[in-house]
Amino acid sequence: MAAPFHHPFQESQFNLFVWYPKYLDCQRFFLERAQYSVPVQTVAAFINIQLPFQKGETPASPASGSTASSSPANEYDHVHVSGSSHSSSRAAGKAPARHPSPPTTSLIPFIRRLVATGFDNPGTMHGFFGDEWREGVGEMHEMERRNFLFAAKSDTWLKVKAHYDMPDGQVVPFLRPLARVMEKEIQSAERDWSNWLAMQDWMLGPRSLTDDSDGPRVKMEED
């Protein structure tokens, strides 16, 4: 039987509003600094994934005076939600100030490729996403590791590889078994896999079976 479901973010009392500025730190570090560094370009070439500047999504060279390490939260501290500031601006004959929008490039494809190729070690994660990587993309990293475990359990090597291929010739050149795995990570993956098997069997809500004497049990996959 399936154990009670817990969203991955809930396991560590995850706070989205604390996380988001850290994620923006990682995003800006990657876009404004990391992708232009030789080590990151070397890894990206080896695992066959294009960086944003190579696809024309960002400038071909870093902007002078880039301050990617500054906290993006500071940029938005002075933004007012109430309408009073806008009305006062109009009364003074001034247009409301325009503030920079957060970057739109997702970091997930890069995390996925690093995980699938075994390059998701702390040093590489730091090189790609900066000092705040654990706070900014750490949860995503853990979930992508879990997804990789689930993919390997779900299908053959060939289909898993095809799943991790990307368009425009960005096929994954190789897959490596998950590295630096701890017992806690395996237990967490087993619990979530059990929840997925329960989902497949519609063992949800009132259909979730419980054992009052032994507590929640783990639904095991049939041989």
Quick recap:
InterPro entries: Verrucosidin_biosynth-assoc. With 223 residues, this protein is an all-alpha fold.
General description of the model:
It is a single chain. With 223 residues, the chain is an all-alpha fold. Helices cover 44% and strands 0% of the residues. It contains 8 helices and no strands. Helix 1 (16-32) crosses helix 6 (133-154), helix 4 (108-116) packs across helix 6 and helix 5 (122-129) packs across helix 6 (133-154). The two termini are 16 Å apart.
Descriptors:
Verrucosidin_biosynth-assoc, single chain, 223 residues, mainly alpha, 44% helix
* Oligomeric assembly: single chain
Q: What is the helical fraction, as a range of percent?
A: 40-55%
How big is the Rg? Answer: 22 Å
Largest sheet: none
Mean pLDDT: 80
Percentage beta strand: under 5%
Q: What low-confidence regions span 5 or more consecutive residues with pLDDT below 50? A: 1-6, 66-92, 211-216
Reading the helices and strands in chain order gives HHHHHHHH
Output the number of helix runs: 8
Shape: globular
Class based on secondary structure composition and strand pairing: mainly alpha
How far apart are the termini? 16 Å
What is the number of strand segments?
0
